[in-house]
Amino acid sequence: MYSSWTPHEAAIIFSALIPAFPLAAAIILALLGAKWFKKSAHVPAIISVALSFAIAFKLLLMFQSGQLAAPNATYIQSDLWTWIGAGGFKASFGIFLDPLSCLFAAFVTGISLLIFIYSSGYMEGDYGYFRFFAYMSIFVFFMTTLVLANNFLLVYLGWEGVGLASYLLIGYYYPRPAARDAATKAFITNRVGDTCFAVAVLMIYLTFHSLKFSHVFYGSLQSPAFRAAHRTVLFWIPLLLMFGAFAKSAQFPLHVWLPDAMEGPTPVSALIHAATMVTAGVYLIARCLPLFLHDLPVLHLVGLIGCFTAFMAATIAMCQYDMKRIWAYSTISQLGYMFLGLGVATGTGAVFHVFTHAFFKALLFLATGSVMHAMGGELDIRKMSGLRKKMPITAITILMGCLALSGFPGWSGFFSKDDILSAAMNSTWHFGPWLAVVGLLTALITAYYTFRVFFRVFTGELILPATAGQHEPSPFFPPGETPGGEYVANHGRPAADGAAKDRPAHAKKPRSFDGEPAMWLPLIVLAIGATFAGYLGVFGSHAPGGWIGGFLGRVPLNGTIQYVPTLPAGLPQPAPGRINPTLIMGIGAALAVLGVLIAAYFHRINRQAAAKVAVVLRPLVHFLENKWYIDELYHYTLVRPLRFLGHILSLMDRFVVDGLVFVIGFIPQLTGFTIKPTQSGRLRYYGIGMVAGMAVVLLGVLYLLR
Amino acid sequence: MSNPVLYRYLALGAALFAVGLVGFLTRRNMIMIFLSTEIMFQGIAINLIAFSCYRQNAAGQSFVIFLLTIAAAEASLALGLVVMLFRRRETLNVDAWSDMQG
Question: Is the domain defined by B3-90 classed in CATH 3.30.230.10?
C-alpha cells in the first residue's frame, strides 16, 4: 500500500497527520486527563507534537531535495474530504503544501515541542496540569490546520481556533480576575479582526466562486480583464484581510490584547508570541500577497502601520518594568517589522524574520519563565539584579536571545531584520526608504531596551526579591488551603505537615535556580537556534537570501520564479542595489552595538544616571510608562460609551421588557384566583359536578340524535 | 317502549341507579357512600341483563359476571381504604377529608 503511493500522495496524507496528532492528544487529555493523566499529561502532548514535528521536518527535507517539485507547479494540494457541502458551495478539508506552509509547519511544531518540554517542568504539579496540556495541544492543532489549509474557510477555522485556544490559556488561572479580564480582552479584540476576515472570506467566495488558494491566486486573478472588472472588491478584500491579520498579530490599533496576554502561564506567552498565534497574521498576508500586490495602497498601508507599530511598541518597551511585558511589546515591535517587510513586498524577509523571531522570542519568554519560577513570581526588573551568579544557564541563554532580538551583528535577528530594512530601502515606493529609516531607529531602541533588561536583571550586585526561592502562589486555592492533600497549592510541592514522605529525595536539596533539566535543556536548544538560525538566510544556497531565500524562492507568485514578487506591469519596477545592502547592514550593526553600549552605560556602569535622565524626561517617561495612553483612549472612546449604553439597555430591560412579562404572567394568576373556590375538596360537590356534567352531555347527545 | 317486560326491568335498573345516586350525593358516612355506589352498580347490571335477555345474546350476562367479580374485588379494596382512613381521623365523615381544596 505505502509503496504504491507517489511522494505527492504520501506527503499529503502524512501532512494531514501534523494537525491530527495534537488533536488526538487534546481529545485524550480532555476526556481521560482527569483520571489517568493527572501527573503525566505532558507525555501524550509531547509525543504528539514530536511526531508532528518529525513529519513536518521530513516534508521540509522533501521540498528541499526537490522530491515534491512538479514540473509546472511548486505547490501540491489535495482535498481529503468534503467538510461542508451545500448546493453549489463546497468547502473541503484539504492540504496545501508549498515551501511556505512547510516552513511554518516545521517551526511551529518544532518550537511548540520545545515549549511543551519546558512546560512539563515549569507547570509540574500545577492544579489543572492535564487541562493545560489539553489546551496547548488544541492550540497547536488549530495553528497547524491554519498553516496547512488549502482554502480560506479552513484557514478561518484555524484562525478562530487559535483565538479560542488563546482565550482558554490566557484565562488559565481563571480565579484571578486579571486573567479573566485579559482573556476576554484578547478574545474581543480578536473578534474585531475575525469579523473582518470573515467578511473578506465571503467576498472572496462571491468574487472567485471558490475558496481554494489554487483557484483564487492562480486562476482568474491573473487576468487583467477580471481585475479591472472587480477593482472595488479587490481593494476591500486585502483591506479586510489586513485588519484580520492586524488583530491576530497585535498591530496598532488592535495590539492592546497582547501585553495583557501574559496573565497566562509563561509557556503560553512563549507559544503565543513565538509559534502559534501572532505569526498567523504574517502567514495570512504572506500567503495572500498575490491579492495584495494588485492593490498596492493596501499593501503600503500594511507597511506603514507595521512601521508605526514597530516604533511605538519599541518606545513603550523602553519604560516598562515587568520583564514579560517588555518582551510582549518587543513582540509587537518585531511583528511590526514583519509587516513592514510585507509592505515593501519582501515576503521572504518577513517570513525569515518570523522564523528567527520564533527562536529568540520563545527563548526570551521561557528564560523569563525560569526567572519567574526562581523568584517566586516576581518579574519587576527594579527588584532584582545580578542573577547571573544564581542562574548561570538562564543568564547565558537569555543573553543569546537578547543579542538576537537586538540585532547584534552575527546573531539571527540581525540578518532577518537587515533583509527587511534593505528591501524597504530599495523599495520603489517612495515611502520605503523613510520606513527603513524609522526601522533603523527602532533597531537602536530595540537594542537599548533589550539590554536594559539584561544588564538590570543579570549583571551588577546580587539583589533578590523577597519571594525568591518560593513558588508562585497558586491562584486556585486561598493561601494555606490545599485540595485534598494530593495537589498542593504551591505548584504541587508537598505541604509542610505530613506530606514529607511523598517528597522525592532530591527535592530536599536546595533547588537550582535554573530549574530542572526539562526547563533548561529547551533553553539551550533555543539559544543555539537564536544564535545560528540567521545564517540560514546567508549561507546554504547560491540564491540571494541564502537557504531561506532559495527555499522560499521556489514558491512562484505571479508566474515568476521569485518569491519576492514583481510588481504589476505599468508600475515602476524596483531598481535593485540603489542603496548597497552591505551599507544598511553596517548601519544596522552599528546602531545595535550603540544601543547595547547605551544600555550598558545606564544600566550596568552607572545606574544612577538612568534615574537622573528619567527625572529630566519625566513627561516622556510618563507617556511611555502609560503605553501612549492607548488603553485609556480605548477606555474613554469605547468602553465608557458602551457601558453607558449598557446601563440604558439594562433599565429598558428592567422596566419595559420585565413589565410586559409581568403583565402576561398576571393573566393566568388572575384566572386561577377566580376559579379557585370550585376546588372545595368535598367529595359531594365533585359528585354533583360529575352528575351535572354527565347530565349535560347526555341531554346534548339526546338533543343531537332526536 | 314497545316491550312492557323490558320496560319494567329497565325501570327497576334506573330506579336502583337513582337511589344509589341520591345516596351518594347526600350521605356523609363513607361506608354509606360506598354502598350507594354498589347500588348504582347493580342498577347497571340489571340493565345489561335485561338487554341480554331481550336480544337473546349471552354477551351481556357474561359481562355482568365480570362486572360482579370486579365489583367484589373493588369492594374489598375500598373497604380496606375506608378502614385506613378511619384509623387516621377516627371518623367516617367524608367532610373530614377535604384537604385538597384550592
Answer: no
